[in-house]
Amino acid sequence: MNLLVVLFLLVGVFFFLGGAIGIIRMPGFYTRLHPAGILDTMGILLMVTGIALYNLIPFSFDSLLLSIKIFLIVFFVFLSSPTATHSIVDAGMRAGLRHWTNKKRRG
Amino acid sequence: MKFLGFIVVCLTGALLLYGTGDFSNWGDPNSPASLHLSNEYIERALEETQVPNLVTAVLADYRGFDTMFETAVIFCAGLACFLLLRDFREKKQRFYRHIPTGVILHVKNSKKVLPVGREFEHIDKDWVPSDLIIKTVCRILVPFIQIYAMYVVAHGDFSPGGGFQGGVIFGSSLILIAISYDLKILVRRIKEKVFGIFAAVGVLIYVGIAALCMPMGGNFLDYSKLAPLLPGDPHHVRALGMLGVEIGVGIAVTAVMVIIYINIVSEGRLEEGL
Questions:
Q1: Is residue A13 part of a domain?
Q2: Domains in chain A: how many in total?
Q3: Burial of B247 (0-12, 13-18, 19+ CB in 10 A)
Q4: Is there a domain that residue A107 lies in?
Q5: Rounded-to-integer distance, Cα B250 and Cα B247, Å
Q6: Which of A83, A90, A94 minimises the CB distance to B137?
Q7: Given CB atoms, is B141 within the 8 Å cutoff of chain A?
Q8: Which residues pair with B121 in a beta bridge?
Q9: DSSP letter at B127?
Q10: Residues of chain A contacting residue B131, judged by C-beta atoms under 8 Å apart
Q11: pLDDT tens, per residue, chain B with 274 residues
């Protein structure tokens, strides 16, 4: 069981790392939002799953309740994080920012 | 005049810097605060106030005057924002959309007001309509944020939190309504006057609870004298008094946050903003 928890946490860290590298390495505004929005949400899902599982190990009603409460964090992040990304992209589009294109290949 | 002001600012700054020379070093175990005060709080706070959270006990009970005037400072900030920015003049121009055709009308005569309803729709010049996704998600999230804010206020004497934090969270939920829908909807649902009254009522609750201790035979802010008025264990009366005070702080902070926001984003007109 502990192995499973460690696996979840490690995969979650992997996603967060990928998101962080993606924000730095991606070209352009919209492509940078892509790792920031998606990988962070995935990373938080996996890490919180790991924490909730770890909390469940001496199984009782209280620990189950606490795990459900921990999962509520994921619920709210799943609601708010894509919406925030969406609104940032929306603001960028309305302000007239063009998306990034590879000038070398085109020209 | 500017030069004079510069000199005054420099002199005051120099005086303050000179004053810091007398402070004891950071974390010095021999400073007066560490020798007497902290130990006194740590040893006796739980037994005297029955509040498990030491920070709240110090903030709302031992240093109640400090917190009371902090609340008054926040009230003054809201008041100053209102007095400086609020603009009661009629707006010179309005924009309307004729709903069946989608034609946008620009009315320059400030006297002429078109009836807003099925035929005409009021639109803002600077404000862009937020789309369905943002509106829906914010509508789902706002009640949860408000419940969380009340939890932070009510649980202030057991865990980190309290009136200031809870008030800011509650205010941010109202500001979220103004951002995701528009400012008019917030101001129409909760009138500006109501926010002003609540800001004053919050401070009044704090001062009222503090002053109520005096006719009960105690000092100003001596919550333990409120015991006959409150049900329950008389040992917990200080915790209950702090809870009442925190609620007052929360109400004041909420109202002031919203007042500052709505006045700044709309340049004091409260008609359209952002």
A1: yes
A2: 1
A3: buried
A4: no
A5: 5
A6: A83
A7: yes
A8: B97
A9: P
A10: 90
A11: 789 999 999 999 999 999 988 887 777 777 777 788 888 888 887 777 777 788 888 888 888 889 899 999 999 999 999 999 888 877 667 777 787 887 888 877 767 777 777 777 777 766 666 678 888 999 999 999 999 999 998 887 777 778 899 999 999 999 998 888 888 888 888 888 999 999 999 999 999 988 888 888 778 878 877 777 777 777 778 888 888 888 999 999 999 999 999 898 888 777 776 6
SS3 content of chain B, % helix, strand, coil (to 5): 65, 5, 30
Tell me the nearest-neighbour CA distance from A69 into chain B, angstroms: 13
- pLDDT for position A11: 93
- Looking at the 3D structure of chain B, how many domains does it have? 1
Q: How far is A81 from chain B (nearest CA, A)?
A: 10
Residue A106 lies in a domain: no
Residue A101 — φ and ψ, nearest 5°? -130, 150
Nearest to B172 by CA among A40, A86, A80, A93: A80
Query: What is the pLDDT, as a whole number, of residue B273?
Result: 65
Contact A83 B144 (CB under 8 A): no
Domain range for residue A9?
2-98
Residues in chain A with CB shorter than 8 Å from the CB of B144 are 76
In 3D space, the residue among B222, B134, B114 whose CA is nearest the CA of residue B181 turns out to be: B134
Where is B213: in which H helix or E strand? Answer: none
Report phi then psi at B89, rounded to 5: -65, 150
Residues across chain A: 107
Largest interatomic CA distance in chain B: 79
With beta carbons less than 8 A apart as the criterion, state whether B174 and B186 touch.
Answer: yes
Structural domain that includes position B234: 50-88+130-265
Q: Token pair for residue A21?
A: 């590298």
Instruction: Flag if B137 and A90 touch (Cβ within 8 Å).
Output: no
A84 touches chain B (CB under 8 A): no
B137: distance to nearest CA of chain A, Å?
A: 7
Whether residue A105 lies inside any domain: the answer is: no
